[in-house]
Write a structure and sequence with these properties.
Chain A is α/β, with parallel strands linked by helices. Helices cover about 40% and strands about 20% of the residues of chain A. Chain A has a five-stranded parallel sheet with strand order 8-7-9-10-11, with helices on both faces. A four-stranded mixed sheet of chain A has the order 3-4-6-5, with helices on both faces. Chain A has a two-stranded antiparallel ribbon with strand order 1-2. Chains A, B, C, D, E, F, G, H: This is 1-(5-phosphoribosyl)-5-amino-4-imidazole-carboxylate carboxylase.
Chain lengths: ~250, ~250, ~250, ~250, ~250, ~250, ~250, ~250
Amino acid sequence: MDIKDMLNLVKSGEMEIQEAEQLLKDLPYEDLGYAKLDHHRALRSGFGETVFCQGKPDPYLVEIYRKFYERDGEVLGTRASEEQFELVKSVVPEVQYDSISRILKVEQPEKERKGCVAVCTGGTADIPVAEEAAQTAEYFGCHVDRIYDVGVAGIHRLLSQRDRIRNANCIIAVAGMEGALGTVIAGLADCPVIAVPTSVGYGASFHGLSALLTMLNSCANGISVVNIDNGYGAGYLATQINRLAVK
Amino acid sequence: MDIKDMLNLVKSGEMEIQEAEQLLKDLPYEDLGYAKLDHHRALRSGFGETVFCQGKPDPYLVEIYRKFYERDGEVLGTRASEEQFELVKSVVPEVQYDSISRILKVEQPEKERKGCVAVCTGGTADIPVAEEAAQTAEYFGCHVDRIYDVGVAGIHRLLSQRDRIRNANCIIAVAGMEGALGTVIAGLADCPVIAVPTSVGYGASFHGLSALLTMLNSCANGISVVNIDNGYGAGYLATQINRLAVK
Amino acid sequence: MDIKDMLNLVKSGEMEIQEAEQLLKDLPYEDLGYAKLDHHRALRSGFGETVFCQGKPDPYLVEIYRKFYERDGEVLGTRASEEQFELVKSVVPEVQYDSISRILKVEQPEKERKGCVAVCTGGTADIPVAEEAAQTAEYFGCHVDRIYDVGVAGIHRLLSQRDRIRNANCIIAVAGMEGALGTVIAGLADCPVIAVPTSVGYGASFHGLSALLTMLNSCANGISVVNIDNGYGAGYLATQINRLAVK
Amino acid sequence: MDIKDMLNLVKSGEMEIQEAEQLLKDLPYEDLGYAKLDHHRALRSGFGETVFCQGKPDPYLVEIYRKFYERDGEVLGTRASEEQFELVKSVVPEVQYDSISRILKVEQPEKERKGCVAVCTGGTADIPVAEEAAQTAEYFGCHVDRIYDVGVAGIHRLLSQRDRIRNANCIIAVAGMEGALGTVIAGLADCPVIAVPTSVGYGASFHGLSALLTMLNSCANGISVVNIDNGYGAGYLATQINRLAVK
Amino acid sequence: MDIKDMLNLVKSGEMEIQEAEQLLKDLPYEDLGYAKLDHHRALRSGFGETVFCQGKPDPYLVEIYRKFYERDGEVLGTRASEEQFELVKSVVPEVQYDSISRILKVEQPEKERKGCVAVCTGGTADIPVAEEAAQTAEYFGCHVDRIYDVGVAGIHRLLSQRDRIRNANCIIAVAGMEGALGTVIAGLADCPVIAVPTSVGYGASFHGLSALLTMLNSCANGISVVNIDNGYGAGYLATQINRLAVK
Amino acid sequence: MDIKDMLNLVKSGEMEIQEAEQLLKDLPYEDLGYAKLDHHRALRSGFGETVFCQGKPDPYLVEIYRKFYERDGEVLGTRASEEQFELVKSVVPEVQYDSISRILKVEQPEKERKGCVAVCTGGTADIPVAEEAAQTAEYFGCHVDRIYDVGVAGIHRLLSQRDRIRNANCIIAVAGMEGALGTVIAGLADCPVIAVPTSVGYGASFHGLSALLTMLNSCANGISVVNIDNGYGAGYLATQINRLAVK
Amino acid sequence: MDIKDMLNLVKSGEMEIQEAEQLLKDLPYEDLGYAKLDHHRALRSGFGETVFCQGKPDPYLVEIYRKFYERDGEVLGTRASEEQFELVKSVVPEVQYDSISRILKVEQPEKERKGCVAVCTGGTADIPVAEEAAQTAEYFGCHVDRIYDVGVAGIHRLLSQRDRIRNANCIIAVAGMEGALGTVIAGLADCPVIAVPTSVGYGASFHGLSALLTMLNSCANGISVVNIDNGYGAGYLATQINRLAVK
Amino acid sequence: MDIKDMLNLVKSGEMEIQEAEQLLKDLPYEDLGYAKLDHHRALRSGFGETVFCQGKPDPYLVEIYRKFYERDGEVLGTRASEEQFELVKSVVPEVQYDSISRILKVEQPEKERKGCVAVCTGGTADIPVAEEAAQTAEYFGCHVDRIYDVGVAGIHRLLSQRDRIRNANCIIAVAGMEGALGTVIAGLADCPVIAVPTSVGYGASFHGLSALLTMLNSCANGISVVNIDNGYGAGYLATQINRLAVK
């Protein structure tokens, strides 16, 4: 933190007190009234701010994409709809949309990628959440190994992928219904496992509650959990862990 | 059903109408006022009635054990405490108590056992429930193969027992916390799997709710669920299935 | 298990080590990337793999039906929509759809059926789930006896069907709202009862939770429970039990 | 209501305004500070106020019993402990305690009883709640017919009691675990059924929640529900209904 | 019960055994396969069977209305949609529909009504459920007094209706959100109060759960509860109570 | 209270008893049958009655707006839809609609505003609820300071607004998902904080339950909670507090 | 905030930069390692910090009381046990304990009290929570009017206290079971009502959940809710509101 | 994986087929019947197996400690009671017990520690869980920085520790009640944050559910959650992450 620098400037008279006061207040974000954009995030954490598109009123969304794109040349958004894609494209023509993951982004070409994050799913229906995680990790600079449809009801499918699983710095286990995938993986691997419950299922899955509880009660070591369907959160956290490993 | 026989007797005058009426009412049980003992159960289903000891007032409990013992020469009770054992023993000295399974019984010697039921647990703490299941199945005439502490967080422990698992006519999978054991077993075996969630765990296990939901949402085929900690119910049902197989 | 055979081949030099390694990995399934088809299931368990249609993206669904149909000549799918039927039919013209059970299948003609499974419902609204169960059991080779609208609020309707109930090797009890049907049936019969809670109801039925809890807490012996609305799971399990009985 | 009378007295000058004001405020109860005793209840509703003993601090409890006893010559309390019995007895020696129902009361001898309320239980463990209901109804002047241990898992026990069930003006159905008793009874009888869920059970009974939901979702007509273990409430309501019938 | 009569006929040879057997089975209902119509209900309980329209497949619904109408000349159905009204009208032109209560019925003209049931609501939004209750009670022969929008947040509105409330043999209290109406009414009246929670509300009302719990926990005496939005159940039960009072 | 005055009039004969009785009953509201309008509310509490538009049948809604507008010249409604706006406008052309807050009102011009209420949100998606609160407080005569998108995940945004927060007489903290905003604000300010959980979020937010529980468990002092999404309730209560402060 | 002052001192050289840095860090609390005591609280908010005794390890508790007492001459603690009282008394002999409210405090004599807070309870069992609220408000300088046992099941008890209720600047409504007290009070008064659900009750009260939901769903205006049994929180908040009123 | 090596030995005849089969089965653990000890864990993952003491029967517990101690010279156990400590000490005299964290261990002296994990708590009552986490991380070779009692209700306490927070490779945030600590920390730091909800609290904290939901719904990036009170799991996972960082 450079409060010390600023205080030195104040002491030496190079900076006015009013100016210092102002700086302390306004430095961290750009205020649009309805939103406060955190352009300093990238400096502070090495990650730019991400846009959660779902439910954002149209004019706000477009403005936010434009602002980020103008300043950073790239922008990542999640949970976007087809309609939001069309809307943003009219202002930021470079924007790209993936209808499986629902990611809406502009990404700078030829980013360097380092280290490896594995993304596994229990079934085919968990792929949208897995792709949100995988594409987030790729956007922030990870290699991603996708290992899909390896649920524990047919354990041989998972066991045959052991080598790929053990090759990663961090594993994301995406599963709905019973959600036991993360535990078995954590028992096979020795790196951190991030479990993502999905709302896939019916009846007593209670929209993901079942998978969530399973994962929280995992008997395995080295596993933690994010919110139901929160592929983005898992991809972000996996990137942080992967960066520590490749640093 | 022998209603027809009885009607024939009525028609032929061999049985009085009042007597027939009485029979239809009184046949099925012995009425102690506070309890109605179903001595015909054994005829009807091939299983004697079982005593759920927990919460039974002392005089009732003792009387019920005495009645069953006198008529059948054997009696099975579950969820008994050490104190209840002492109490019943003073009236039925042959009664035996197992402090792990909490089963309190008199069992006729040298029963024949047929077919095989496997009883598996995820961990050591699930053993009391597993023993309630195993001893129930043995009491009703099954061979039982105990396969304990094979939870899915260390999948190799379970995989090395595949042959024993595949050898059974029915498998009981007992597990708390995340409760994923049943699914993996059902994926390995081709006989019915009865999943028993246990209240083992803490925090978000919510006294067995987590394991219960996991089991209900199992992605595997051929699996069904009984109440939390209901080892007796699983042992009874496994016996029914085993009898069908060895019949 | 034929690992021993394979090891013998390796020892005798008839099989290369690399080949053995490959076999151990690739044997169990065909990998489509987004899905791993388990063609060996039928060998292992006597049941082909079933397709859970709901939520499957269109191109995946069509491809999966085509693959299974080509290899096995028949395929069973559940929870299909009218639209999915039209879609699959364009590629597999032999496919048939039942709008009550939502089953989408190709079935080989003149299958032999053995043994009997009874399927009961509490009310008329439970019939779709019951039909999913009944048609699954029929597909896998059982005779099915349908006993519908015999809920316990008018107990005489159920009692008059006692003979049919006692004639089955396994009974499926399908009920929503209060869900007490399974208990009364299990008290009348001496074979296993599979209880299926349905989401039929309103208010405090909480989408099937009420019926689910009722069934889990059944005072009867010989009863187990599957997920809310899980007719398929009940039909599958009933078939396993029926096969043990007629074997 | 006699506000009109009072207003007449005010108009005629027979009552002072201040006095009228006071009356309107103080008429309905005796204020002990920590409690407001409603001595007018008996006039208004035909029932004296009942004491819920559980959790009442000792000095309050004793004082309340003394006050009621002095004024009315009798008093009914529920959920009393053995200790509270001893305590109250030291001040009101006539008080009587029943350790099953936990009712602590002084009752005037040779009360007249009219009409009939039937009290049924699913099992033996439900008897304490049933007795709270039965003794409450008796205290307030009903005949009570006790029909215990007639749970639906052995439906013949209940069916053989049909005549007694149909003889009542109101039926109280007390059951824990799955709680289906009320529905079957309501299907057999044509008078109001009050269902009382009990906390008897374990695991997924969730301390009575399962039985409560079952009862609320009953498919039968003519059934309503009170709180878990609320035998008193059921006994009171049954008395109201019985009084309407015998009036 | 006339089993005795039948047995006498059997004994005297006036009835064949087979015929008696058949009678015992077929007497109670007409079997349509998908539904079992209980035409004897009216004899047994004094109430004809009611049709729960919601979710009934169209051909079933029409057939059931036709059958009941042909035999009884009247029929009562609940939770019907506008579309179902049009459908049934094409076969039973006399049928009438009320879009507030969603009741679809044919009712015989100039029915006699006896006794009084009061139906109260907390707010205007509770009226549809209240009307289902009120019209059910009227159909079965009660006078109904409607007292709407008297929620406890403005207690003077309720207090000014005290006389009407005290005039009824049974009171139905319909309320959503906090659901306290029933308690206050039960404190003012001395007849049975049936509380109906409604799903009116938002947020932490959890679709009627809040009102349901409030009512179950009522501190008042003489109150019981039916399922959320179950106006029909309340109307039926109120009629039973009212009949006892006017009998 | 002026009961005394009225009693004096009765005593002196200036008021007839019947008239007094009538007054006591009819004074408080105007009865439309389906609704009881509380015109005296403004006198009693200083606030006119507000219309909760959601779910009100069209003719009722229009009539209620017309009645209030005619008598008071202004009217406030919440949770109105675009369609309801059009409907009411056809009868009360002065009515105005805000699509963000969904407030539908006629407001008298140039109202005086006193004191200050601060309304804060965690994110942009919480603004609709915040605006319902803010516009309610403004309607009832408060100045409102809007401080939006200051969620605790970027604590510097909130800290930089400390002065504005400390300037208010009451603060409304609106937040979904984790809902921690209120606690941090209450730690910074020394006036009452009203926390409003919103249904913004997904997965384990359970439609606002998560935020609600967070707020109820706040470790801070001086904070209380209203229902999920209840901006109106917060705005009303804040006004009451603000009035006490500026009085 | 005096950051400006400090910056002025830094500019003028009267304060060293290091010193300023240190101040910004250490100013707000005294660090005991296991606890950080906020002595500045009183300055900032006008309230000293309160000790939540429950669960505090003995040596920590004693030390914390000693520290606060030494610096401030008074200290307020809640949820203390008899044992903790004895323990603290051995070090701070002036400490006083009230076994009903479980408050453990040293209070300076002859504090001035201003304004009035009313504390109401539904029943006698709610008094401990009410006393925690009342004594907290008194400690912080309010007059408190206690109005106990005025639950809505006997509405006349509450109505007769209308004048006392309307005399307060803020009302605390404490109730368990159904929890409707707050709504009725808020309808009678025009000042803020703080509703405190209590865990008093049984069965479906779910340890206070029922009362909590009732209060959150209140139809009345001007009401907010604190955590179950949180008398302290209500007392604190009421004091803040009362201070605004008497300021 | 060394299956290849083993297959080579089989091919060359150096290993018998039976021996290979045996190896594949028995390699991974030592079977005590009631437990399967995973001595290979340390090789596989770099962590020895840990003993969850709570609920382990005495003879099992002692035996397990002895086995591990004999083979590895050290052993870590969690959730041990004072009694279990005495018991194990009688067999393994070197064992040490910490009554705050409830950790029971033998640890080899002078272990090297690398990298830094920060452990923060919201309050003093969260320290036992925090210590379980901290001592686990230390046992597995991390430096730990303890930052206790920095809950968000007094945000300045946390902000003043910013430098220590930013110095860690991984942060564990332990908090009960509202549980917002993790979010604020994740907003300040740029390394992974593991949130541990604790069961500290009362009322609507529902034994940690409130804090759990808060953490799962965190608006911050880079945060994941473990089970309620699962300090061990957090300490283990933090160690994995820290090892990746210092590797």
